[in-house]
Amino acid sequence: MKEGLNIIVCVKQVPDPEGPPSAFEVDSESKKVIPKGIPPVMSPFDENALEAALRIKDEAACKVTVLSMGKRLAKPVLRKSLAVGADELILLEDNSFEGLDPYWTAITLSSAIKRIGTYDLVLTGRQASDWNAAQVGPGISEILKIPSVTLARKVELREDGVIVERVLPNGYEVIKAPIPSLVTVSNELGDLRYAGIKEIKAVQNKPITTLCASDLKVDLSQTDQIKLLKLYPPVWDRKCNFIEGQDAQEIGVALALKLRVDKVV
Amino acid sequence: MDEYRGVLVFCEVEENIAPITLELLQVGRKLADDLGVELLTVVLGSDIKRIADELVYFGPDKVYVIDDPLLKSYNGDACTTVLERLCEALNPDIILFGQTSVGRDLAPRLSFRLKTRLTTDCIDLSIDQDTKLLLQTKPVYGGNALAVYVCEVKPQIVTVRSKTMSPIAYDENRKGEVIEFDTEIDELIIRTTVIEKVKEEATGIKLEDADIIVSGGRGIGGPDGFEQIEELSKLLGGAVGASRPPCDLGWAPSTHQVGLTGKIVTPNLYIAVGISGASQHLAGMSESKRIVAINKDSKANIFKVAHYGVVGDYKDILPAFIKKLGELK
What average pLDDT does this structure show over B247-251? Predict the structure, then answer.
Protein backbone atom coordinates (compact mmCIF):
# COMPACT_ATOMS: atom_id res chain seq x y z
CA MET A 1 0.00 0.00 0.00
CA LYS A 2 1.05 3.52 -0.70
CA GLU A 3 1.81 5.95 2.14
CA GLY A 4 0.85 9.57 2.53
CA LEU A 5 -2.37 9.50 0.53
CA ASN A 6 -5.40 11.66 1.19
CA ILE A 7 -8.82 10.13 1.63
CA ILE A 8 -12.01 12.15 1.89
CA VAL A 9 -15.14 10.53 3.33
CA CYS A 10 -18.54 12.19 2.94
CA VAL A 11 -20.97 11.36 5.73
CA LYS A 12 -24.55 12.39 6.38
CA GLN A 13 -26.32 12.87 9.67
CA VAL A 14 -29.74 11.17 9.79
CA PRO A 15 -32.35 10.19 12.40
CA ASP A 16 -31.46 6.69 13.67
CA PRO A 17 -32.93 4.32 11.04
CA GLU A 18 -33.08 1.53 13.61
CA GLY A 19 -35.88 3.37 15.39
CA PRO A 20 -39.38 1.86 15.46
CA PRO A 21 -41.94 3.10 12.88
CA SER A 22 -43.59 5.22 15.58
CA ALA A 23 -40.36 7.25 15.79
CA PHE A 24 -40.89 8.61 12.27
CA GLU A 25 -43.79 11.04 12.26
CA VAL A 26 -44.78 12.03 8.76
CA ASP A 27 -45.98 15.62 8.52
CA SER A 28 -47.74 15.77 5.17
CA GLU A 29 -48.31 19.51 5.57
CA SER A 30 -44.65 20.54 5.78
CA LYS A 31 -43.61 17.44 3.77
CA LYS A 32 -41.12 16.46 6.43
CA VAL A 33 -40.45 13.41 8.57
CA ILE A 34 -40.17 14.45 12.19
CA PRO A 35 -38.07 12.09 14.32
CA LYS A 36 -39.62 11.34 17.71
CA GLY A 37 -37.33 10.25 20.51
CA ILE A 38 -34.55 8.91 18.31
CA PRO A 39 -31.07 10.41 18.21
CA PRO A 40 -29.26 11.66 15.13
CA VAL A 41 -26.62 9.21 13.92
CA MET A 42 -24.24 8.83 11.02
CA SER A 43 -26.05 7.18 8.11
CA PRO A 44 -25.14 3.45 8.25
CA PHE A 45 -23.62 3.17 4.76
CA ASP A 46 -21.53 6.28 5.46
CA GLU A 47 -20.22 4.51 8.56
CA ASN A 48 -19.22 1.64 6.26
CA ALA A 49 -17.43 4.17 4.03
CA LEU A 50 -15.56 5.61 7.02
CA GLU A 51 -14.59 2.09 8.07
CA ALA A 52 -13.23 1.48 4.55
CA ALA A 53 -11.02 4.57 4.92
CA LEU A 54 -9.81 3.51 8.38
CA ARG A 55 -8.89 0.04 7.14
CA ILE A 56 -6.72 1.66 4.47
CA LYS A 57 -5.17 3.83 7.18
CA ASP A 58 -4.50 0.71 9.30
CA GLU A 59 -2.25 -0.56 6.52
CA ALA A 60 -0.46 2.59 5.47
CA ALA A 61 -0.16 6.06 6.93
CA CYS A 62 -2.62 8.37 5.22
CA LYS A 63 -4.85 11.28 6.06
CA VAL A 64 -8.58 10.74 6.44
CA THR A 65 -10.75 13.85 6.17
CA VAL A 66 -14.45 13.60 6.96
CA LEU A 67 -16.91 15.99 5.32
CA SER A 68 -20.47 16.46 6.44
CA MET A 69 -23.12 18.86 5.30
CA GLY A 70 -26.41 20.13 6.69
CA LYS A 71 -28.36 23.02 8.10
CA ARG A 72 -27.44 22.34 11.70
CA LEU A 73 -25.22 19.40 12.53
CA ALA A 74 -24.90 17.52 15.80
CA LYS A 75 -21.22 17.86 16.56
CA PRO A 76 -20.97 14.90 18.98
CA VAL A 77 -22.39 12.57 16.31
CA LEU A 78 -19.82 13.67 13.74
CA ARG A 79 -16.97 13.99 16.24
CA LYS A 80 -17.26 10.23 16.56
CA SER A 81 -15.45 10.04 13.21
CA LEU A 82 -12.39 11.63 14.87
CA ALA A 83 -12.65 9.27 17.83
CA VAL A 84 -12.51 6.21 15.58
CA GLY A 85 -9.46 7.52 13.75
CA ALA A 86 -10.24 10.21 11.17
CA ASP A 87 -7.68 13.05 11.13
CA GLU A 88 -9.83 16.02 10.26
CA LEU A 89 -13.51 16.94 10.36
CA ILE A 90 -14.95 19.60 8.09
CA LEU A 91 -18.56 20.64 8.55
CA LEU A 92 -20.47 22.43 5.83
CA GLU A 93 -23.21 24.30 7.62
CA ASP A 94 -25.64 26.76 6.12
CA ASN A 95 -29.36 27.44 6.27
CA SER A 96 -29.46 27.07 2.50
CA PHE A 97 -28.31 23.44 2.81
CA GLU A 98 -31.64 22.37 4.24
CA GLY A 99 -33.64 20.09 1.97
CA LEU A 100 -31.21 20.36 -0.93
CA ASP A 101 -31.76 17.73 -3.61
CA PRO A 102 -28.96 15.25 -4.41
CA TYR A 103 -27.88 17.25 -7.47
CA TRP A 104 -27.14 20.40 -5.47
CA THR A 105 -25.77 18.38 -2.56
CA ALA A 106 -23.21 16.80 -4.92
CA ILE A 107 -22.32 20.23 -6.30
CA THR A 108 -21.77 21.63 -2.80
CA LEU A 109 -19.71 18.65 -1.61
CA SER A 110 -17.65 18.73 -4.83
CA SER A 111 -16.92 22.36 -4.22
CA ALA A 112 -15.67 21.55 -0.72
CA ILE A 113 -13.54 18.70 -2.09
CA LYS A 114 -12.01 21.05 -4.66
CA ARG A 115 -11.28 23.50 -1.86
CA ILE A 116 -9.43 20.77 0.06
CA GLY A 117 -7.49 20.36 -3.15
CA THR A 118 -5.46 17.20 -2.80
CA TYR A 119 -7.27 13.89 -2.69
CA ASP A 120 -6.53 10.39 -3.89
CA LEU A 121 -9.75 8.69 -2.93
CA VAL A 122 -13.25 9.98 -2.18
CA LEU A 123 -15.60 7.63 -0.32
CA THR A 124 -19.35 7.86 0.27
CA GLY A 125 -22.01 5.42 1.47
CA ARG A 126 -24.04 3.77 -1.27
CA GLN A 127 -27.12 5.74 -0.15
CA ALA A 128 -28.38 7.63 2.88
CA SER A 129 -31.00 6.03 5.11
CA ASP A 130 -33.32 9.05 5.13
CA TRP A 131 -34.13 10.09 1.55
CA ASN A 132 -32.50 7.05 -0.01
CA ALA A 133 -31.40 9.00 -3.10
CA ALA A 134 -28.29 6.89 -3.83
CA GLN A 135 -26.70 9.28 -6.30
CA VAL A 136 -24.58 11.86 -4.50
CA GLY A 137 -21.45 9.66 -4.78
CA PRO A 138 -21.60 9.03 -8.54
CA GLY A 139 -22.70 12.67 -8.94
CA ILE A 140 -19.54 13.94 -7.24
CA SER A 141 -17.44 11.77 -9.55
CA GLU A 142 -19.14 13.27 -12.60
CA ILE A 143 -18.65 16.82 -11.33
CA LEU A 144 -14.99 16.24 -10.41
CA LYS A 145 -14.55 14.24 -13.62
CA ILE A 146 -12.97 11.33 -11.78
CA PRO A 147 -13.85 7.64 -12.22
CA SER A 148 -16.31 6.00 -9.85
CA VAL A 149 -17.03 2.52 -8.63
CA THR A 150 -20.29 1.82 -6.78
CA LEU A 151 -21.29 -0.75 -4.14
CA ALA A 152 -17.90 -1.66 -2.70
CA ARG A 153 -17.42 -4.46 -0.19
CA LYS A 154 -13.64 -4.01 -0.05
CA VAL A 155 -11.38 -1.09 -0.98
CA GLU A 156 -7.60 -1.22 -1.27
CA LEU A 157 -5.31 1.66 -2.15
CA ARG A 158 -2.16 0.67 -4.01
CA GLU A 159 0.74 2.50 -5.61
CA ASP A 160 -0.91 2.48 -9.00
CA GLY A 161 -4.59 2.64 -8.23
CA VAL A 162 -7.61 1.59 -6.23
CA ILE A 163 -8.73 -2.04 -6.15
CA VAL A 164 -12.40 -2.43 -5.36
CA GLU A 165 -14.54 -5.49 -4.82
CA ARG A 166 -17.95 -4.49 -6.13
CA VAL A 167 -21.02 -6.39 -4.92
CA LEU A 168 -22.99 -8.21 -7.62
CA PRO A 169 -26.23 -10.15 -7.10
CA ASN A 170 -24.39 -13.47 -7.41
CA GLY A 171 -20.96 -12.59 -6.05
CA TYR A 172 -18.61 -9.72 -6.74
CA GLU A 173 -16.28 -8.25 -9.33
CA VAL A 174 -12.80 -6.88 -8.75
CA ILE A 175 -12.36 -3.49 -10.37
CA LYS A 176 -9.21 -1.47 -10.76
CA ALA A 177 -9.56 2.31 -10.91
CA PRO A 178 -6.88 4.99 -11.15
CA ILE A 179 -6.06 7.62 -8.50
CA PRO A 180 -8.02 9.73 -7.80
CA SER A 181 -11.35 7.90 -7.90
CA LEU A 182 -14.63 7.89 -6.03
CA VAL A 183 -16.00 4.73 -4.45
CA THR A 184 -19.43 4.20 -2.87
CA VAL A 185 -19.46 1.65 -0.08
CA SER A 186 -22.08 -0.98 0.77
CA ASN A 187 -22.90 -2.68 4.08
CA GLU A 188 -21.05 -5.87 3.06
CA LEU A 189 -17.79 -4.04 3.81
CA GLY A 190 -18.50 -4.27 7.53
CA ASP A 191 -19.48 -2.11 10.49
CA LEU A 192 -17.61 0.92 11.72
CA ARG A 193 -15.25 0.14 14.59
CA TYR A 194 -16.18 1.27 18.09
CA ALA A 195 -14.74 4.32 19.78
CA GLY A 196 -13.86 3.86 23.42
CA ILE A 197 -14.53 6.43 26.13
CA LYS A 198 -10.82 7.28 26.11
CA GLU A 199 -10.82 8.01 22.37
CA ILE A 200 -14.03 10.03 22.57
CA LYS A 201 -12.57 12.16 25.39
CA ALA A 202 -9.32 12.61 23.52
CA VAL A 203 -11.00 14.31 20.57
CA GLN A 204 -13.49 16.38 22.56
CA ASN A 205 -11.56 19.59 22.08
CA LYS A 206 -10.03 18.84 18.72
CA PRO A 207 -10.73 21.75 16.40
CA ILE A 208 -13.32 21.31 13.66
CA THR A 209 -13.42 23.39 10.50
CA THR A 210 -16.80 24.87 9.60
CA LEU A 211 -17.56 26.29 6.17
CA CYS A 212 -20.70 27.94 4.81
CA ALA A 213 -22.18 28.32 1.32
CA SER A 214 -20.30 31.55 0.59
CA ASP A 215 -16.96 29.93 1.55
CA LEU A 216 -17.68 27.32 -1.07
CA LYS A 217 -18.79 29.78 -3.74
CA VAL A 218 -21.88 27.77 -4.60
CA ASP A 219 -24.96 29.56 -5.84
CA LEU A 220 -27.98 27.90 -4.27
CA SER A 221 -30.55 30.50 -5.26
CA GLN A 222 -32.43 28.25 -7.68
CA THR A 223 -32.56 24.69 -6.52
CA ASP A 224 -36.15 23.60 -7.03
CA GLN A 225 -35.96 21.70 -10.31
CA ILE A 226 -37.20 18.56 -8.63
CA LYS A 227 -40.21 19.03 -6.35
CA LEU A 228 -41.50 16.93 -3.53
CA LEU A 229 -45.23 17.03 -4.30
CA LYS A 230 -46.45 14.80 -1.52
CA LEU A 231 -45.14 12.99 1.52
CA TYR A 232 -47.40 10.54 3.34
CA PRO A 233 -47.18 7.53 5.62
CA PRO A 234 -47.71 4.18 3.93
CA VAL A 235 -51.22 2.88 4.34
CA TRP A 236 -51.26 -0.84 4.89
CA ASP A 237 -54.67 -1.85 3.60
CA ARG A 238 -53.87 -5.27 4.97
CA LYS A 239 -56.08 -6.39 7.76
CA CYS A 240 -53.93 -9.16 9.03
CA ASN A 241 -55.94 -12.38 8.85
CA PHE A 242 -54.92 -14.27 11.99
CA ILE A 243 -55.00 -18.02 11.54
CA GLU A 244 -56.50 -19.72 14.55
CA GLY A 245 -56.95 -23.28 15.68
CA GLN A 246 -57.00 -25.70 18.60
CA ASP A 247 -53.25 -26.22 18.56
CA ALA A 248 -50.10 -25.57 16.58
CA GLN A 249 -50.76 -28.62 14.41
CA GLU A 250 -54.15 -27.32 13.32
CA ILE A 251 -52.82 -23.81 12.71
CA GLY A 252 -49.92 -25.08 10.60
CA VAL A 253 -52.29 -27.08 8.41
CA ALA A 254 -54.77 -24.20 8.11
CA LEU A 255 -52.00 -21.83 7.01
CA ALA A 256 -50.82 -24.24 4.33
CA LEU A 257 -54.38 -24.60 3.01
CA LYS A 258 -54.92 -20.82 2.93
CA LEU A 259 -51.79 -20.30 0.86
CA ARG A 260 -52.83 -23.09 -1.49
CA VAL A 261 -56.28 -21.53 -1.99
CA ASP A 262 -54.54 -18.21 -2.76
CA LYS A 263 -52.37 -20.10 -5.25
CA VAL A 264 -49.13 -18.70 -3.82
CA VAL A 265 -47.70 -22.16 -3.07
CA MET B 1 -41.71 23.62 -26.54
CA ASP B 2 -42.14 19.92 -26.98
CA GLU B 3 -38.60 19.07 -27.94
CA TYR B 4 -38.40 16.12 -25.54
CA ARG B 5 -40.49 13.17 -26.74
CA GLY B 6 -40.78 9.49 -26.06
CA VAL B 7 -40.25 7.07 -23.21
CA LEU B 8 -36.88 5.31 -23.30
CA VAL B 9 -36.30 2.03 -21.47
CA PHE B 10 -32.74 0.90 -20.74
CA CYS B 11 -32.61 -2.81 -21.52
CA GLU B 12 -30.49 -5.06 -19.33
CA VAL B 13 -29.19 -8.32 -20.67
CA GLU B 14 -28.10 -11.19 -18.45
CA GLU B 15 -27.98 -14.07 -20.90
CA ASN B 16 -31.32 -13.09 -22.28
CA ILE B 17 -33.46 -10.02 -21.72
CA ALA B 18 -33.40 -9.46 -17.94
CA PRO B 19 -36.75 -9.77 -16.07
CA ILE B 20 -36.53 -6.13 -14.90
CA THR B 21 -36.51 -5.00 -18.54
CA LEU B 22 -39.85 -6.67 -19.21
CA GLU B 23 -41.25 -4.90 -16.14
CA LEU B 24 -39.90 -1.54 -17.38
CA LEU B 25 -41.34 -2.16 -20.86
CA GLN B 26 -44.77 -2.82 -19.34
CA VAL B 27 -44.86 0.42 -17.32
CA GLY B 28 -43.06 2.24 -20.14
CA ARG B 29 -45.72 1.15 -22.65
CA LYS B 30 -48.43 2.50 -20.38
CA LEU B 31 -46.68 5.85 -19.83
CA ALA B 32 -46.00 6.20 -23.57
CA ASP B 33 -49.65 5.44 -24.40
CA ASP B 34 -50.85 7.95 -21.78
CA LEU B 35 -48.64 10.60 -23.36
CA GLY B 36 -49.40 9.50 -26.92
CA VAL B 37 -45.71 9.05 -27.71
CA GLU B 38 -43.44 6.23 -28.79
CA LEU B 39 -41.90 3.66 -26.47
CA LEU B 40 -38.20 3.35 -27.20
CA THR B 41 -35.66 0.95 -25.81
CA VAL B 42 -31.89 0.79 -25.99
CA VAL B 43 -29.71 -2.26 -25.66
CA LEU B 44 -25.93 -2.10 -25.30
CA GLY B 45 -23.52 -4.97 -25.73
CA SER B 46 -21.46 -7.02 -28.10
CA ASP B 47 -23.15 -9.34 -30.63
CA ILE B 48 -26.61 -8.54 -29.41
CA LYS B 49 -28.56 -8.61 -32.68
CA ARG B 50 -30.58 -11.60 -31.43
CA ILE B 51 -31.63 -9.74 -28.26
CA ALA B 52 -32.51 -6.61 -30.25
CA ASP B 53 -34.73 -8.59 -32.64
CA GLU B 54 -36.46 -10.33 -29.76
CA LEU B 55 -37.14 -7.07 -27.91
CA VAL B 56 -39.58 -6.02 -30.64
CA TYR B 57 -42.08 -8.60 -29.37
CA PHE B 58 -42.15 -6.95 -25.95
CA GLY B 59 -43.77 -3.70 -26.90
CA PRO B 60 -41.32 -0.99 -27.96
CA ASP B 61 -41.90 0.94 -31.18
CA LYS B 62 -38.18 1.33 -31.71
CA VAL B 63 -35.21 -0.66 -30.47
CA TYR B 64 -31.87 1.16 -30.56
CA VAL B 65 -28.86 -1.10 -30.63
CA ILE B 66 -25.33 -0.06 -29.72
CA ASP B 67 -23.17 -3.03 -30.61
CA ASP B 68 -19.48 -2.74 -29.81
CA PRO B 69 -16.87 -5.21 -28.51
CA LEU B 70 -16.00 -2.63 -25.81
CA LEU B 71 -19.53 -3.03 -24.42
CA LYS B 72 -19.23 -6.78 -23.96
CA SER B 73 -19.48 -6.49 -20.20
CA TYR B 74 -20.78 -3.54 -18.21
CA ASN B 75 -18.47 -0.57 -17.93
CA GLY B 76 -19.82 2.64 -16.39
CA ASP B 77 -17.55 4.99 -18.34
CA ALA B 78 -18.41 3.55 -21.76
CA CYS B 79 -22.11 3.10 -21.07
CA THR B 80 -22.60 6.60 -19.65
CA THR B 81 -20.94 8.16 -22.68
CA VAL B 82 -22.85 6.22 -25.36
CA LEU B 83 -26.14 6.80 -23.56
CA GLU B 84 -25.36 10.50 -23.27
CA ARG B 85 -24.92 10.60 -27.05
CA LEU B 86 -28.09 8.62 -27.67
CA CYS B 87 -30.06 10.99 -25.42
CA GLU B 88 -28.67 14.01 -27.23
CA ALA B 89 -29.83 12.47 -30.51
CA LEU B 90 -33.28 11.33 -29.35
CA ASN B 91 -34.20 13.83 -26.62
CA PRO B 92 -36.39 11.39 -24.71
CA ASP B 93 -38.90 12.88 -22.28
CA ILE B 94 -38.60 10.00 -19.79
CA ILE B 95 -35.88 7.40 -19.20
CA LEU B 96 -36.48 4.25 -17.15
CA PHE B 97 -33.75 2.12 -15.56
CA GLY B 98 -34.02 -0.83 -13.20
CA GLN B 99 -32.88 -0.37 -9.60
CA THR B 100 -30.24 -3.03 -10.22
CA SER B 101 -26.49 -3.19 -9.90
CA VAL B 102 -26.18 -1.68 -13.40
CA GLY B 103 -29.01 0.83 -13.01
CA ARG B 104 -27.69 2.09 -9.68
CA ASP B 105 -24.32 2.77 -11.29
CA LEU B 106 -25.44 4.16 -14.61
CA ALA B 107 -28.58 6.21 -13.94
CA PRO B 108 -26.94 8.65 -11.46
CA ARG B 109 -24.00 9.25 -13.76
CA LEU B 110 -26.16 9.80 -16.82
CA SER B 111 -28.46 12.19 -14.96
CA PHE B 112 -25.51 14.33 -13.80
CA ARG B 113 -24.00 14.21 -17.29
CA LEU B 114 -27.29 15.46 -18.76
CA LYS B 115 -27.66 18.00 -15.92
CA THR B 116 -31.10 16.70 -15.08
CA ARG B 117 -32.48 15.03 -11.92
CA LEU B 118 -33.03 11.42 -10.97
CA THR B 119 -35.40 9.60 -8.63
CA THR B 120 -34.16 6.15 -7.66
CA ASP B 121 -36.03 3.11 -6.41
CA CYS B 122 -39.51 4.12 -7.61
CA ILE B 123 -42.39 1.77 -6.88
CA ASP B 124 -45.10 3.66 -8.75
CA LEU B 125 -45.08 5.85 -11.86
CA SER B 126 -47.89 7.74 -13.54
CA ILE B 127 -48.49 10.78 -15.72
CA ASP B 128 -50.01 13.95 -14.28
CA GLN B 129 -52.86 14.67 -16.66
CA ASP B 130 -52.49 18.47 -16.37
CA THR B 131 -48.75 18.95 -16.59
CA LYS B 132 -47.95 15.73 -18.52
CA LEU B 133 -45.06 15.29 -16.10
CA LEU B 134 -44.04 11.99 -14.54
CA LEU B 135 -45.21 11.44 -10.95
CA GLN B 136 -42.48 9.44 -9.26
CA THR B 137 -43.33 7.59 -6.04
CA LYS B 138 -40.65 6.06 -3.85
CA PRO B 139 -40.33 4.90 -0.24
CA VAL B 140 -38.13 7.11 1.99
CA TYR B 141 -37.05 6.94 5.62
CA GLY B 142 -36.86 3.19 5.51
CA GLY B 143 -40.36 2.86 4.12
CA ASN B 144 -41.87 4.93 6.92
CA ALA B 145 -42.98 7.49 4.35
CA LEU B 146 -43.76 7.61 0.65
CA ALA B 147 -42.59 10.56 -1.39
CA VAL B 148 -44.01 11.70 -4.72
CA TYR B 149 -41.61 13.74 -6.81
CA VAL B 150 -42.00 15.63 -10.03
CA CYS B 151 -39.03 16.81 -12.06
CA GLU B 152 -39.25 19.96 -14.13
CA VAL B 153 -36.06 19.45 -16.13
CA LYS B 154 -35.82 16.96 -18.96
CA PRO B 155 -35.26 14.16 -19.46
CA GLN B 156 -37.04 12.84 -16.37
CA ILE B 157 -34.98 9.86 -15.23
CA VAL B 158 -36.00 7.20 -12.72
CA THR B 159 -34.91 3.78 -11.56
CA VAL B 160 -37.65 1.28 -10.75
CA ARG B 161 -37.54 -1.32 -7.98
CA SER B 162 -37.58 -4.92 -9.24
CA LYS B 163 -40.89 -6.78 -9.23
CA THR B 164 -43.00 -3.73 -8.44
CA MET B 165 -44.35 -3.71 -12.01
CA SER B 166 -45.78 -6.73 -13.79
CA PRO B 167 -43.75 -7.95 -16.78
CA ILE B 168 -44.99 -7.35 -20.32
CA ALA B 169 -46.03 -10.47 -22.22
CA TYR B 170 -44.40 -11.75 -25.40
CA ASP B 171 -46.59 -11.09 -28.45
CA GLU B 172 -45.30 -12.23 -31.81
CA ASN B 173 -47.75 -9.96 -33.62
CA ARG B 174 -46.04 -6.85 -32.30
CA LYS B 175 -44.10 -4.82 -34.81
CA GLY B 176 -41.21 -2.52 -34.10
CA GLU B 177 -38.17 -1.13 -35.77
CA VAL B 178 -34.60 -2.15 -34.90
CA ILE B 179 -32.18 0.74 -35.42
CA GLU B 180 -28.42 0.57 -35.13
CA PHE B 181 -27.07 3.64 -33.36
CA ASP B 182 -23.59 4.16 -34.69
CA THR B 183 -21.18 5.70 -32.26
CA GLU B 184 -17.44 5.38 -31.85
CA ILE B 185 -16.12 4.52 -28.42
CA ASP B 186 -12.66 5.89 -27.72
CA GLU B 187 -10.92 3.33 -25.51
CA LEU B 188 -9.32 6.18 -23.58
CA ILE B 189 -12.62 7.12 -21.95
CA ILE B 190 -12.66 3.76 -20.17
CA ARG B 191 -10.82 4.41 -16.90
CA THR B 192 -11.86 1.43 -14.80
CA THR B 193 -11.18 -2.20 -15.63
CA VAL B 194 -12.75 -5.38 -14.33
CA ILE B 195 -9.93 -7.69 -13.26
CA GLU B 196 -12.13 -10.63 -12.41
CA LYS B 197 -15.67 -11.67 -11.61
CA VAL B 198 -16.19 -14.03 -8.72
CA LYS B 199 -19.36 -16.08 -8.43
CA GLU B 200 -20.19 -16.87 -4.86
CA GLU B 201 -21.78 -20.22 -4.30
CA ALA B 202 -25.06 -19.08 -2.86
CA THR B 203 -27.11 -21.99 -1.68
CA GLY B 204 -30.18 -22.05 -3.87
CA ILE B 205 -31.88 -19.11 -5.51
CA LYS B 206 -30.80 -15.47 -5.32
CA LEU B 207 -32.90 -13.41 -2.92
CA GLU B 208 -33.65 -10.79 -5.56
CA ASP B 209 -34.93 -13.38 -8.02
CA ALA B 210 -36.88 -15.57 -5.64
CA ASP B 211 -40.66 -15.80 -5.94
CA ILE B 212 -40.81 -17.08 -2.39
CA ILE B 213 -38.63 -16.01 0.53
CA VAL B 214 -38.61 -17.49 4.03
CA SER B 215 -36.82 -15.25 6.52
CA GLY B 216 -35.83 -15.70 10.11
CA GLY B 217 -35.33 -13.10 12.83
CA ARG B 218 -34.07 -12.85 16.37
CA GLY B 219 -37.05 -14.95 17.49
CA ILE B 220 -35.48 -17.96 15.77
CA GLY B 221 -33.23 -18.20 18.83
CA GLY B 222 -30.00 -19.40 17.26
CA PRO B 223 -28.27 -20.80 14.18
CA ASP B 224 -29.98 -24.18 14.61
CA GLY B 225 -33.36 -22.60 13.99
CA PHE B 226 -32.28 -21.63 10.51
CA GLU B 227 -32.24 -25.31 9.55
CA GLN B 228 -36.03 -25.31 9.74
CA ILE B 229 -36.17 -22.06 7.75
CA GLU B 230 -33.97 -23.66 5.12
CA GLU B 231 -36.08 -26.80 4.99
CA LEU B 232 -39.21 -24.74 4.40
CA SER B 233 -37.63 -22.56 1.73
CA LYS B 234 -36.25 -25.61 -0.07
CA LEU B 235 -39.65 -27.25 -0.10
CA LEU B 236 -41.19 -24.10 -1.61
CA GLY B 237 -38.36 -23.62 -4.10
CA GLY B 238 -37.57 -20.30 -2.49
CA ALA B 239 -34.66 -18.45 -0.92
CA VAL B 240 -33.62 -17.92 2.69
CA GLY B 241 -33.56 -14.42 4.13
CA ALA B 242 -32.93 -12.91 7.53
CA SER B 243 -33.52 -9.70 9.43
CA ARG B 244 -30.56 -7.80 10.81
CA PRO B 245 -30.10 -9.38 14.28
CA PRO B 246 -29.38 -12.94 13.02
CA CYS B 247 -26.81 -11.50 10.60
CA ASP B 248 -25.17 -9.40 13.32
CA LEU B 249 -25.14 -12.41 15.64
CA GLY B 250 -23.63 -14.64 12.97
CA TRP B 251 -26.61 -17.02 12.73
CA ALA B 252 -27.01 -16.18 9.05
CA PRO B 253 -24.58 -14.78 6.46
CA SER B 254 -24.86 -11.03 5.88
CA THR B 255 -25.71 -11.70 2.22
CA HIS B 256 -29.07 -13.00 3.46
CA GLN B 257 -30.02 -9.75 5.11
CA VAL B 258 -33.31 -8.25 3.97
CA GLY B 259 -33.92 -4.63 4.91
CA LEU B 260 -32.80 -1.07 4.49
CA THR B 261 -29.17 -2.05 5.08
CA GLY B 262 -29.47 -5.22 3.07
CA LYS B 263 -31.50 -6.43 0.13
CA ILE B 264 -34.82 -4.97 -0.90
CA VAL B 265 -37.13 -7.70 -2.13
CA THR B 266 -40.67 -8.00 -3.48
CA PRO B 267 -41.43 -11.72 -3.84
CA ASN B 268 -44.88 -13.20 -4.39
CA LEU B 269 -44.72 -14.74 -0.94
CA TYR B 270 -42.66 -13.60 2.05
CA ILE B 271 -42.76 -15.71 5.19
CA ALA B 272 -41.37 -13.86 8.22
CA VAL B 273 -40.54 -16.18 11.09
CA GLY B 274 -39.64 -14.77 14.48
CA ILE B 275 -39.25 -11.28 13.01
CA SER B 276 -40.61 -8.41 15.10
CA GLY B 277 -40.82 -5.93 12.22
CA ALA B 278 -38.36 -3.11 12.88
CA SER B 279 -38.85 -0.42 10.29
CA GLN B 280 -35.42 -1.13 8.88
CA HIS B 281 -36.60 -4.68 8.02
CA LEU B 282 -40.01 -3.57 6.73
CA ALA B 283 -38.20 -1.26 4.32
CA GLY B 284 -36.80 -4.32 2.61
CA MET B 285 -39.92 -6.46 2.29
CA SER B 286 -43.17 -4.59 2.88
CA GLU B 287 -43.93 -4.38 -0.86
CA SER B 288 -44.02 -8.19 -1.12
CA LYS B 289 -47.24 -9.41 -2.76
CA ARG B 290 -48.24 -11.72 0.11
CA ILE B 291 -46.77 -11.66 3.60
CA VAL B 292 -47.12 -14.33 6.27
CA ALA B 293 -45.86 -13.57 9.77
CA ILE B 294 -45.25 -16.10 12.51
CA ASN B 295 -44.43 -14.54 15.87
CA LYS B 296 -45.00 -15.22 19.56
CA ASP B 297 -45.94 -11.61 20.27
CA SER B 298 -49.40 -10.74 18.97
CA LYS B 299 -48.49 -7.04 19.14
CA ALA B 300 -45.38 -7.43 16.96
CA ASN B 301 -45.10 -4.74 14.34
CA ILE B 302 -44.71 -7.29 11.55
CA PHE B 303 -48.45 -8.07 11.76
CA LYS B 304 -49.19 -4.53 10.51
CA VAL B 305 -47.87 -5.43 7.08
CA ALA B 306 -48.81 -9.13 7.09
CA HIS B 307 -51.72 -10.60 5.15
CA TYR B 308 -51.72 -13.74 7.28
CA GLY B 309 -50.60 -13.91 10.86
CA VAL B 310 -49.91 -16.74 13.24
CA VAL B 311 -49.36 -16.01 16.91
CA GLY B 312 -47.29 -18.79 18.40
CA ASP B 313 -43.95 -20.50 18.62
CA TYR B 314 -42.56 -21.24 15.18
CA LYS B 315 -41.02 -24.46 16.52
CA ASP B 316 -44.52 -25.81 17.05
CA ILE B 317 -46.14 -24.34 13.94
CA LEU B 318 -43.57 -25.04 11.23
CA PRO B 319 -43.49 -28.86 11.41
CA ALA B 320 -47.23 -29.15 10.74
CA PHE B 321 -47.06 -26.39 8.11
CA ILE B 322 -44.15 -28.05 6.32
CA LYS B 323 -45.80 -31.49 6.44
CA LYS B 324 -49.06 -30.18 4.99
CA LEU B 325 -47.27 -28.25 2.25
CA GLY B 326 -45.41 -31.45 1.35
CA GLU B 327 -48.72 -33.31 1.01
CA LEU B 328 -50.21 -30.57 -1.15
CA LYS B 329 -47.33 -30.69 -3.63
Answer: 89
